[in-house]
Amino acid sequence: MSNELAKVSNYAVVKSENVDFKSILEANIGGEQIDQFALDRVKVPGAGGIAWEVPTLEGVDMAKTVEGVIVGWKTVRSLYLTPFTGGGEPPVCSSDDGTIGIGDPFEKGTSGTA
Description:
By secondary structure, this protein is mainly beta. It folds into 2 domains: 21-63, no CATH class; 74-114, no CATH class.
């Protein structure tokens, strides 16, 4: 198994004959667009974890490996002035696009929002 990136120029997500997937998709989303929040998310194993959390129609499936094609990504950043504990405390500064930050890391007692 290789861990190299492959540039794929003509990748078909679904292949089937005599099925109009475009019409089916349009009927199901009602003219709306699909954004990142409408899609299911596969959760990466946490520190010390060995299984991915994969959503299915029957619930969550735990998988040791996940195979797929990355179709998009975005850079986000968060700044914590104390060690991150996962306790729900917001960062003092964050960026949803990896460039423009929200919050002031130099302001004492900041809540993480500007």
